[in-house]
Amino acid sequence: HLDIGISWTINKDKGLWFGKRGTDLGIYKNHTPYLLESTIKKRYIYCYLNGRKEDEVIVDPSWFNSKIKVTRL
């Protein structure tokens, strides 16, 4: 579950941008982007960062026992 990462965005449009940016820029070859979505309790959020307008949250990875919706982009 740690492979998923602890840095997420609460902005779906920004998540779509992050998911597709490597492919759109030609950085990754044979790259299949995905959007991961879930709902977690506030107690699992360590902090909220928006200095780069990314609506980023750093989360406790133990919440990954929750259901995650995966969408291939």
Structure explained in plain terms:
This protein has 73 residues and is α+β, with helices and mostly antiparallel strands. The chain has one helix at residues 12-24, and strands at 7-9, 34-37, 45-49, 56-59, 69-72. The protein has a three-stranded antiparallel beta sheet. A two-stranded antiparallel sheet has the order 2-5. It is globular, with a radius of gyration of 13 Å.
Index terms:
27% strand, alpha+beta, three-stranded antiparallel β-sheet, 5 strands, 73 residues, globular, two-stranded antiparallel ribbon, 1 helix
Shape: globular
Strand content: 25-35%
Kindly provide the radius of gyration, computed on alpha-carbon positions and rounded to a whole number of angstroms: 13 Å
Contiguous runs where pLDDT drops below 50 for at least 5 residues: none
Q: How would you spell out the order of helices and strands?
A: EHEEEE
Mean pLDDT: 85
SSE layout and pairing:
Elements: E1 7-9, H1 12-24, E2 34-37, E3 45-49, E4 56-59, E5 69-72
Antiparallel strand pairs: 1-4, 2-5, 3-4
Write a concise synopsis of the structure shown.
The chain is α+β, with helices and mostly antiparallel strands and 73 residues long. The protein has one helix spanning 12-24, and strands at residues 7-9, 34-37, 45-49, 56-59, 69-72.
